[in-house]
Design goal:
Helices cover 7% and strands 42% of the residues. It has an 18-stranded antiparallel β-barrel. A two-stranded antiparallel sheet has the order 1-2.
């Protein structure tokens, strides 16, 4: 507790001493952080620390969850997280620099209403570590989430250590209190104009509600009744989109490496044919398990009078290299063989229960006019296997994915209508942006019963100009289940961010 108090004191003191008129960093609507001001290069190695820069963030996140009908496994609840982060970047010397970042979160302020069991928490689970909470370590933790060395040349940039690596498949997804980060090495090429190419070998992952780095893919299904440790699964990769058949037990049976390194290549270019055409591509590979590839085209068309239309197309394919025989085609692990924890009933619902081969087709249209934007998106998942994507990058993202939704299960079709309006750009309300969407999710009723849903969403971001660098985010969503036996639910999220 003493170390936590010291951390909070440092954050508060740094905030008070900061120049509130400066804008060193900003947060995009998708929660990615932009560093608007970076340390300048120095000529003497002795100046790398004195000319370095601190980046601070104080934040609160309040999550409300309401079921239409409560039950023994469902409780209405709300939970408040309070904390922040403190980053330090050294000044570059001969292209070399270092970055260190500490994040902190604390829940249980006495004004929230937490669930009686952390297992009942939904979105708000990421303001605590459930593993720590149920094992007597409290509802507060700090973590060294980033710590890397960087070498930057005019033609490339390389990093090694703990870092955020935002790609199509991997994202920080920093919408709670602590970002999703990785350990490994990354390389970015800056050699081709209008082009960004990156590659990464990621050895371990730290999810948002964890204070430890763990396997990038393995789900820990072990039950140890003698050690006194509860819910060990929450200390490994327990992401909501994890494949539970790719588990410790199943890996152990076949001698599969429990933490295979994750290879990623990712990039885009606007240098082909026409500057209005953006080609994006990404691929990942896990040895002896599976690989996935994505290609996307977006083309901007000027319609005149300030209007522009951007059609987009995305294709994603997942290739089995052994994951299917280990864990089966379903993310819940129940399509695996009987010996690997599956059931004959679930296996019969898949055309090939022992393969994770699958693909997705996505299309969208985006119409922009000044401060307004309107889009229609569609995604269709093949009637084969579920997509495996537990790194907070989602194959339907930007097309049909609504907040906290997982619509990449086999034989799922989704449609989304989305509108945004920037009141600040329109000179109506300073600092205000709003978002509104409707999503229809049509699942395979044989494979996943009772999931068909209408999803209604509203969100806003308000920059509070009376306190520079302070912003409010508000998001609310109502999920209407179309099956009579299923339960509707509503969710509200409120966040304050102060950057310094």
């Amino acid at each position: 507790m003493r170390s936590i108090n010291i951390l909070l004191s440092l954050l508060a003191c740094t905030a008070l001493e900061a120049n509130t008129d400066s804008v060193k960093q900003t947060i995009q609507p998708n929660y990615m952080v932009n560093y608007e001001e970076l340390p300048s290069a120095v000529e003497h190695i002795s100046d790398i620390f004195s000319e370095g820069m601190f980046y601070g963030r104080l934040r609160t996140n309040w999550f409300f969850f309401d079921y239409r009908k409560e039950s023994l496994t469902k409780e209405d609840h709300n939970i408040l997280g309070i904390g922040g982060s403190l980053m330090y970047k050294t000044a570059p010397y001969a292209g070399l620099s270092a970055t260190v970042g500490v994040n902190y979160t604390s829940a249980g302020s006495g004004i929230d209403n937490q669930s009686s069991d952390p297992a009942f928490l939904r979105a708000g689970k990421d303001v605590i570590s459930r593993y720590n909470s149920v094992n007597g370590k409290g509802s507060s933790f700090a973590v060294l989430s980033q710590s890397y060395l960087q070498y930057e040349h005019k033609r490339f940039k390389a990093r090694a250590g703990r870092e955020i690596f935002n790609s199509f498949f991997t994202k920080s997804n920093d919408s709670k209190m602590i970002p999703n980060t990785f350990e490994g090495v990354t390389l970015e090429s800056k050699d081709i104009e209008e082009t960004r190419l990156r590659a990464a070998y990621l050895t371990r992952q730290k999810l948002r509600d964890h204070d430890n780095f763990h396997s990038v893919i393995m789900y820990d299904d072990r039950i140890d009744t003698t050690s006194g440790v509860v819910n060990a699964k929450w200390d490994e990769n327990d992401d909501s989109a994890i494949h539970k058949g790719l588990s410790y037990t199943n890996f152990d049976k076949v001698g599969q490496e429990k933490n295979p390194g994750l290879f990623i290549v990712d990039g885009y270019t606007r240098a082909l044919l026409d500057k209005n055409l953006k080609l994006s591509a990404s691929a990942l590979y896990l040895k002896d398990l599976f690989s996935t590839a994505m290609v996307e085209l977006n083309y901007s068309i000027d319609l005149g009078n300030g209007y522009s239309l951007t059609p987009g197309f995305r294709y994603v394919e997942q290739f089995d290299h052994g994951a299917g025989e280990i864990g089966g085609a379903s993310l819940n692990g129940l399509a695996a063989s009987d010996a690997n924890g599956g059931t004959a009933d679930v296996r019969s619902r898949y055309k090939n229960a022992d393969s994770v081969d699958t693909y997705m087709l996505g299309a969208r249209l985006i119409l922009d006019k000044d401060a307004a934007s309107f889009s229609f998106g569609y995604t269709g998942i093949a009637d084969q296997a579920d997509f495996i994507t537990p790194w907070r990058g989602f194959v339907t993202g930007g097309y049909t994915r609504a907040m906290a939704r997982y619509n990449w299960l086999a034989n799922t079709e989704s449609f989304r209508l989305r509108g945004t309006y920037d009141f600040d750009q329109a000179n109506i309300v300073s600092g205000l942006q709003t978002y509104l969407s409707f999503t229809r999710e049509d699942y395979d009723e044989v494979k996943y019963t009772g999931l068909d849903s209408n999803v209604y969403y509203f969100g806003l971001i308000q920059e509070l100009e009376k306190v520079p660098n302070l912003s409010l985010r508000f998001r609310t969503e109502y999920v209407e289940r179309l099956a009579a036996s299923s339960d509707d639910h509503a969710e509200v999220r409120m966040e304050l961010n102060y950057l310094f």
